[in-house]
Each structure stands twice: as C-alpha cells, then as structure tokens.
Design a protein that fits this description.
The structure holds two protein chains of two kinds. Chain A is α/β, with parallel strands linked by helices. Helices cover 28% and strands 18% of the residues of chain A. In chain A, strand 12 and strand 13 form a beta hairpin. Chain B is α/β, with parallel strands linked by helices. In chain B, helix 5 runs parallel beside helix 7 and helix 7 packs antiparallel against helix 12. Classes of the chains: A alpha/beta, B alpha/beta. Chains A and B meet through helix 5 of A and strand 4 of B.
Amino acid sequence: MKAVVALLTLLTLHCGHSFAAKPNILFIAVDDLRPQLGCYGVTQVKSPHMDRLASQGMVFNRSYCMVPTCGASRASLMTSIRPSPRRFVTHLASAEKETPGIITLNTHLKQNGYYTISNGKVFHHPEDNAIGWSEPPWRPGSSTAPKKGGKKKAESKNKDEDGKKRGRPFAVSELADDEHADGQVALKTIADLRRLKDKGQPFFLAAGFFKPHLPFICPEKYWNLYPPETIKVPANDHPPKDAPAEAIHNSGELRAYSGVPKTGPLPGELARNLIRGYHACVSFVDAQVGRVLDELDRLDLAKNTIVILWGDHGWNLGEHTLWCKHCCFETSMRAPLIVRVPGLKGGLKTDALTEFIDIYPTLCELAGVPVPSHVQGRSFVPLLKNPSLPWKEQAIGRFGNGDTIRTDQFRFSEYTDKQRGPIARMLYDHRVDPGENVNISERPANAKIAASLTERLRAGKGKDNDLSKPARTQP
Amino acid sequence: MKSLITLAVSSFFLLPFSFAAAAPRNVILFIADDMGQNAGCYGDPNAKTPALDRLASEGTRFRFAFCTSASCSASRSVIMTGLQNHSTGHYGHSHAAHHFSTFSSVQSLPVILGRNGYRTARIGKYHLAPEEVYRFDFALPSNAWNPVGMANDAKAFIADKSKPFFLYFCTLTPHRSGGEIAGHPLKPNPFGNHVNYPEIKDVKYDEAKLTVPSYLPDSPACRAELAQFYQAISRTDAGLARLVEILKETGQYDNTVIMFGADNGPAWPGAKTTVFEPGMRLPLVVRSPDQAKRGVVSDAMVSWVDFTPTILDIAGVKEVMAPPLVRGEPEGGTEGKAAGKKKGLVKYQFHGRSFLPTLNGDKLPGWDLIYASHQFHEIQMYYPMRVIRTDRYKLILNIAHQLPYPFASDLYASATWQAFLNSGGSLYGKRRLAEYTYRPRYELYDLEKDPDELVNVADRAAYKKIFDDLAEKLKTYQQQTRDPWFSKYEYE
C-alpha cells in the first residue's frame, strides 16, 4: 500500500522534479512481435505470460511504431524523434550517428540516477549510445554469456541445404530453452534482477528478445501448441483492390532464406509452416518473458517496478501477399504495447492512438525526471489513469518513400518520389474495412477527406530539418 | 556573531534541531566554457557584461583566481573534487578516444552534498566521467549554447524549496563551435553565434574597434574571431541575468550563493591548454547573501581546488568521512587490492580550502600562493606542467620539455592561427613561435616587470634565491599531493 501511495503521489506531480524514491523500470522489447496475443483478443495465440502482465496493466490497442523496421523503429523510440526521409530509414539506423548530441532514453535515465542495463537486442547496434548503459551492453554469445548454447548454437543447427547463408526460415530445435539466445537473455535478466535488488539505486533494465524474428526456430513443445490442421492462411492474401504498386513489396527479407521461392506467392504448405513457426516463437518468447516476470514477483520487486513491453513493429503473415514488415499497412505499423505501473488499476485497455515516440516522455514522467526539450512525443501517463480520455487525433509513421497517417477512422498513405513529388496514395476506412482490403483514395466521394488527410500528414510528418540544431560541441 | 547567538539559543531549546536556525544556503556554480577575465568588471575594454558586473558590485570579485589545468575536462574534474587531477586519474579529456576518468574512490562535490541533505542538479556541459563518481540527482536537459534557455530549463528545480539545492550550471559558451558565419570572407569561428536563439538579443561587436589582447596577433582574422568570442560572452552574460531574474522570481535570490567562474582561458593558442596567464587566470565572482561587505575586490589568490571545500563550507559540511582515496580500481593493481582490504572511514583530505574567509577582501596571511598541474588536453597532447605562482612570480616546470609543445586540433584549425601561419611571421602576439613551441625545463617569470611572460629569468643569478625557493616548494607540493610525476626527480 505504501508503494501505491508513493507512486500515486509521483504520478500527480507534473513539474518533473520529484524527490520520492524513483521506481525501477523493466523495459522488455520483443523483435517482430505483432499485436496478435491473447490479451489483444486473439485467443488462438498462446501468450499466457504477456496476458498476465496485461491483466495487471494496460493494453494499448492502437499503438503505432514510427518505422516498421527494427533499427529505425528502435532509434526513433529511444530518441523520441520522428523518422524523416533521411533519418531513421533502414534496419541499420543508428541513433548516435543520425541524431548526434541527442540524449537517448537510457542515457537520460542514467544521468538522472538510474543504473541502466541492456541485455539482448535493444538498440539495433549494441554500440549505439553505449555510453548510456552503466555496464557494456550484453548480448548472448559475449564472453559473459552462460556457457552452454546461445544463438549461434541453435541457429547453426539450422541446415543450409541450398547453400544460402541464412539457412531455412523455420526449424524445430531439439535444444532446451536456455540454449537459445532468448533463454539466455532471460537468464541474464533474472541474474541482473537479483543483483540490482539491493543496489540501493533505481534501475532501468532493458531485455530485448530476438524472437519471433526470422528464422523461426524454437523447441518442439512450442510448435506443439499449434497443431498443423489449425493453421490457416489469412483470408486477404491478395493485394488490396485498387492499391498502388508502391504499397506492395516482395518480402525480400524472407526470400533470402533457403527453400523460399525468389518471387511469387509462397506454396501453401510453406506459408502454413511459417505461420505456425511464427506463433510457436511467440509462445517461446512469452515463456521467457514469464520467467523474468516470475522473478520480479519472487524478489518482491514488482511493487516498485514499472514494466513496459513493446514489439518494435507489426508483422505480415501473408496479408496482402506480404511477409515481414516494411510497408505502410496497419499490419506493419500497429505494434504491441503493454504497460504495468505499480499502484495503477490493471486489466484496462485503451483504444487511444499512441505513437512509440510517446514512450520516452512517459517513462520520464513516471520516473520523475525532466523531459528533454528535443522530445517529440507526448507522455501518455494521463491515459494510464483514464483509458478513455480524448487523446491524440492521429499517429504518423513512414517507411521508405511512403508516409502514413492513422486517425480514428482512416489510414491514409502517400508515396513521394524525390524528383517527381507525390506519386501514389491509398486510403482505407477502418470503420468498414479493418483489413485494409479496398483502397478508396481515388473515389470522387472521398476527395475531401483525402485532401484533408494529405494536409495533416504533410504537416505532421518528420522532416529532415525539424530538429533545432545546436552548434556542434567540440570540447 | 548574531548567528552564534541564535545558534546558542536554539540549541538550548531545540537540541535535536540545533542547526535548524542556520539553514544551509543554496549554491549555484556557473562555469563558462573557455573564458578568461573577459568582463567589464575585470577592466576588459571590449566585453559588455552587465549581469556579471552587477554581480561583482553586490559580491566579491577575485583578481587572482586560477584554474589548475587549462583544459575543459581536466579543470572540471578539479572543480568537482577539490583535488589536483594528477591525484585522481583524470589526466585529460573524458570524451571519445581521450577516455580519461576519475578513480572510483574519489568523493565528488555533488555526491557529498547529496549525502548532506542537498538536492543536486547539473545543466549544460558535463565533460566528466565516470557518471558514478560525478552523480547528480538530476541532469536537466537543455541546449548549452543557449544560456538563457538553460536558466529557464532550470527554473522548476530552483523553485523547489523542499531542501537546499546545488545547481552546477555549465554553458558551452563562449567555446568555439562548428558552423560558420555566412558570407564572412575570413571564415572566423562563429562561437555558436550562427544559430538563432529566440530568447536572446544578440550583442554585436565591431571588429575594427576591438582592443586585441597582447598575447594575440592584431590580424583581421583574429579580430573577426574576437568579435564572435565577445558576442558569445555577452550571450553567457544574458544567461546569468536570466538566472538572477529567476532566483528573484522564485524568492530564492537572498537564499542563494552564486559563483561565476570558467574552466580555462579563451580558445586561442597562447591561452587555453597553456599555463600562461591568459590560459589559467580566470574570472571568479561570488555573491553571498551573508557577506558583510559588497562590491569587494579581493587580492587573495585562489585556485579551482578551492571550489569544493568552499561549497562544502557553505553547506555546513565540516568534514567528510569516506573510505581512503586509492589510485586505481578495487579489482586492479596492487594498490587497488590493498584498498579492498582497508576497512573503515577516514577523514577525507582536499588539496584546496574554503575561501569564504576572504570574501570581505581583508588582507589575510597565507593567500598569496597557488599551484597548478596540467597533463593532457587531447590524448595526443601529452605535456605535463607544474606551476607555482605567487603574487609576483611564476615558476613553470615543463616535465616533458624535450617535446615540442602540442597543439589542440581546434586551435590549430582556427582562422587566427591559420592566418598567422600563412603570414609567415615569427612573432605570435609578443611571443616568438620558436619559444612557444620549444620550452626549457624551467620557466621563471617576474610578473611585476614582465606581465606577458616573455623573459625567462630562471637561469639568472639575480633570481637564484627566488628560483630555489619556488622550485623546492613546488617539489614538496608534488610529494605531498602524491604526484605520479614526482618520481621523475629521482630517476632523471
């Protein structure tokens, strides 16, 4: 009860300078996790541990990543800066190189008294803003990793039949959970929790799990949760009606694996195996998350630890012929976000639109540290207390040459050529077409709404020159 | 006397709260970046610094204030620890490849203050490492090129009256910056002036009308850079003005001691990175609500090792008990291992002392000597120097005098230096280039006769007694402060 009062007091402070004991933060990132989990109403997916977290916290039903590719999404989240045509573009994006001088979330918390740790995949590049971690960023396979197994071992078993570097896109692994990279991330995080419990310093502990990123490799028990006969390909495994060519890609990330045809639709059995493997990996990661949450409870840390779980973007499992991410559809932009704050009511869901750049200022407010002026997101702490507050009117993101805006009712995307300007666009009415199967942007009746969304998108999207440029520091 | 009586009375009635009557003052330590005594109150003919002049008129201006190492990171480590950097491992820059940091057993000012009931925050330039040693409660985010914005960003922290506060306020001005002044043919460094700061009204300086300091060449390029430098100083001063305004708005002005200093002298060859007067003789203006006299000019010689003990004195911290300071880290090195076994706390010793007694300008004995100790600026700039300076003489020991004097990359690239090199001249300011580059083991200057430090009298018979006395004192000081370079007296 004491902790509840302390945290509520903390939440009511808006000036940013709180002198109550700072809460710990457990920051869980899951690579390529789409918001298809039990707690998102998709009961076929077995995610009991994330569901438990959700039952004690809040599920953000409509939270959107900024760029649907891992490096760029993470760099944007960790800086709270929008992507632009030349900033945070690819999976190799680096916050340190592309926004030099900007204080990232980890650094800011470290500078404000937090002990900060990075396990697994948090930034895409471990060396990105490594100065903001109190210990060198840890990944499985490094010298301090537990002896047995690790990512290499699990994935080197993945036979490379036709000589492709990446091997097959899915496999049943005969190794134990702990011999997989994500098992090791869980073990390391659990060991850290034990160590941090008595440190007398608040912690920001980031655990970045690698699955369900390709290749889909996990122990058999997780595959067995999904009997093959229950796996169905999506009903909309075709491009949307009247969609521009720009909207669809060839799923190149998947095609690089062996046994996957270079172009064209995937054979039905391959598609079903991929879907099954993806879900098996979700359940595998869910189990690893569960172990960490269990330890948090066992150590009695849950009462003063904020838990935030996010996937870096959505994922396509054959919708619109697409696999992987890298597009402007809802299936790529929408991503899971679950937040549990001690002392706040659990089991809540919100349909408010939130953007991943909102995470940084939210954690600042919860931690009682000032919000840097560069931050472009908005703290959603008020939503945590009242999920039905009127909130953001739009969520804007981008990928490649496409910019996309989601409002309560619509998703509108515009593709721009550097020389020629706008070249294509699409509009979906989520009230009647949640699967985004019919593009209605060119229908005369929608001219007004398309024009209005174009204007809002262009005004609100990230621009290459929208950061106030401080003079370069040369100490 | 009055406070003594108050104390006596209150301790009689409220024994457990005997210090309640004398609530500790807030402290703001304002450190400008690369600024000498370039202010109106110091008689600088160019500078327009109304806020600093005002502060001096209400407080105390020190004529003889010195950093110990004219290099940003090293100097800041000394300010925050009260120790010469040869004792803390912080031999040079902390950032990037330079990678120097402070031994983990060192007790820093914010950590000690935090343990003694202060709220601590820093804003702006930090340039210290590791975070664990220099831990503040809050790192207030701000753009350190905009001192007025910084003051605004610190307002919420200042306004909080729950506990006394310590605010470490470090502008990046008037440091050299990137960017350029559009259309200027001489390509002067813009000192951050190329960016528009909406809160600040630019104070421009006329290149043609400036007085060029004697250590710099009177060239068009140097004048162009000086105009930018002084504009950045005025911007720094605007930050101080806003800070004072905020203290008044929040009702904290008469409860706060303000100190204004700099890390090292201006970013020109001949000043920054050197131990010549332009490099190490710096502004120090202190305004305390408690001082008996105002508008004081003090001739006490103070050093940046004195900041930490002085601020602790203000905070009422009489002594610091801590594990003994050890060189190296607990897990490494023989000394480190031994330290791990040492138990218990000892009285922690600083190299400086509180200068509060000198605030009233009374001529006190024992404030006529300071020491300085420099090792590196950038990592490629190894050039250890030791200095003893009295009110009249300065003795410099160039420990690695066999090496040519190294250049900081940004000073070398400066328009001033490039124009000087292109001119083919041999006299930079009043100093010969050859003498700037190749230095003897000892330099002794009689500052009364030779304020520009041009005539080395170390070998002159007339100065032998003075030389011997200063050299001996310097050697003793090195030994007392466990200077690792002391051993060179023995094996060379």
